Amino acid sequence: MTLANQLTLLRLVLIPLFVVVFYLPFGWAHFASAMIFSVAAITDWLDGYVARKYDQSTPFGAFLDPVADKLMVVIALVLLVTLHHDSIWVVGAAIIIVGREIVISALREWMAKLGQGASVAVSYIGKVKTTLQMTALIVLLANIPMLLIIGYIALFGAAGLTLWSMVIYLKAAWPYLLPDEENSES
Questions:
Q1: What is the model's pTM?
Q2: Could you list the residue range(s) of the whole structural domain that residue 60 is in?
Q3: Could you tell me which of 42, 131, 140, 161 has the fewest CB atoms within 10 Å of its CB?
Q4: How far does CA 164 lie from the centroid of its chain?
Q5: Do 134 and 121 contact (CB within 8 A), yes or no?
Q6: What is the pLDDT of residues 20-46, one digit of tens each?
Q7: H/E run at residue 22
Q8: Separation CA 137–CA 86 (nearest Å)
């Protein structure tokens, strides 16, 4: 078991922990939950760094890392919707982000079956989106009133980049989504 894989497994273990802490009946619960989520977000970056730097990439890690990332983000968004349910903007951003994750995950899987997985590889925009998204989730989970505007701005920025990156991925995949006209005429 490589260090990179151990970090990914740690992230999975931290998910139920930040959910349980989030619902504790104490004033510090949301802040503590956000700090646990922060540690999980750092392990997301760190496992990729360790895997690349020390050549610890494994098939297990390649499968589990994106699963852990998606679970972490989706569960955090569900918590945010329960916390900020009166904000149509938070609910809308959550729908956009989760919807995009489903579409792009399916697109990547389908493109990989066609041998075109590199056509929908992670882009620089995706990295910026992830940074904004993690910042937003941490700030909004902490639920500190004077910082909420920063969280909202980061969340809306992440939602915007989410849509933009989805369009880029779909454009790259578009030639493979359309039937080959030469074959359809035969």
A1: 0.88
A2: 3-177
A3: 42
A4: 15
A5: no
A6: 999 999 999 999 999 999 999 999 999
A7: helix 3-22
A8: 17
